[in-house]
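Handout, section B. The chain below has 114 residues.
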Amino acid sequence: QVQLVESGGGLVQAGGSLRLSCAASGMILSINDMGWYRQAPGKQRELVARIATGGVTNYVDSVKGRFTISRDDAKNTVYLQMNSLKPEDTAVYYCNNIWHFWDWGQGTQVTVSS
């Protein structure tokens, strides 16, 4: 059974940085396209960054130039480096497959104060 464990969130001031990690188990990360998603209060979950098996990345416009997704297949871990954080980035962040969702992890809370 696939398990996803997100970590690295916290409270940060606007302009600050955080690095999120997603440790995956029960599957081989190297053959999966992965994404970071976020869900803000009262809003739907949205995909903010994705990374393909070959390393190609894509970002939603609102985070382009500020967020960087990466992967370490040897560690079965996906990362999200978040710089120049804004209050509107406040959300619970999750990782999951792009094409077929596994059970969602607990997520990691990111709170950006103004």
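Note. DSSP finds no helices and ten strands in the chain. Compare this with the example in section A.
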